[in-house]
Amino acid sequence: MRRRAKPRFWLFLIAVTLLVFGASFLVMRARYAQGEALLKQTRADRDALVLQVNALTDQLNFARTDDYVIRTARDELGMIMPGEVRYVNGAR
Question: pTM for this one?
Fold first, then answer.
């Protein structure tokens, strides 16, 4: 003779199963939120680095021009072009 499982057993089994799945869902949702925040921060860092690379590329491209060489020679080294006359302010 076979024993039949009581309805309370099935209700308990369903309740435990739902509890396990619910806990798993909450844990995975928290991990998803953490991953989403990390992804957002990483994208912001990437965007900042891209802007920095673009600015440095522009600066490098300008440093390769004759205008940069002339400006640097005048401002930092005090050189003048042939035929120019240097005026010195005596008030300094």
Answer: 0.57
